[in-house]
Amino acid sequence: MFLLKILFVACVSFVASLSSTAAAQSTDYIIGPQDVLSISVWGSDISGKYTVEADGTFAFALIGRIPASGKTPRELEAELKKRLADGYYKNPQVSVAVEQYRSQQIFIVGEVRSPGAFALTGDMTLIEALARAGSLTPAASGEALIVRPRTVKSGPLLPGQDEGAQVVRVDVKALQSGALSQNYPLRDGDTIFLPAAEIIYVYGQVRTPGAHPIKGGTTVLQALSLAGGVTERGSASRARVSRLVDGKKIEIRVKLGDLVQPGDTLIVPQRIF
Description:
20% of the residues lie in helices and 28% in strands. It is an alpha+beta fold and 273 residues long. A five-stranded mixed β-sheet has the order 7-6-10-8-9. A five-stranded mixed β-sheet has the order 12-11-15-13-14, with helices on one face. The longest helix has 23 residues.
């Protein structure tokens, strides 16, 4: 498991370093306003960089304004070839790539090292997005929520998303362990939320006292395991939980199979004999 996590971090770093190159080669990206295009016409002096304006068009030498918004780079290539072949060049060789991605964004918030807005480049997936945001903080729960605007028409539903749902839950820990089925594709306007883990506090006669992250359905026995187990001097049978109920702190005697709640303080006393 540890080796897989090391490989995951290395993979994330590698993907991040290649993201701009891979995006430039993408044929599925939809061009939009403010994108900067690199257009090459072989054997001519009209090659250069062109910015798509707010109305979705840009001015191109010889043929005037060209509609680009809503097209892929390959579709725009075909349009330019057709127009340049109409009285300007014989069999023109045209190449279109996205130099700067400015029209589409995703947002990453929560327990990541560098939250914020990021350009959606090419066929970006969750693993690339997390790499852009500097990976998860130690306080992260290990789950990601992909929130998709209802206005986005994104084609087939993602696994875990029903027809009326706009939130997809992703197990980032499974992704770290190599489950690439969790590496979901992202769309323009997606917000990725990394919530903080729910915490329980374990003190007394345990090997690793302090705060420990838990999931729903965690028992007293599992919480003690997270704290390294009970010391030889501890009495698990006399464990108690300090819990805030209706604004008042109460103490409850608990058994090993009882469930704990986020914010609980589990105390393991010393043996009497």
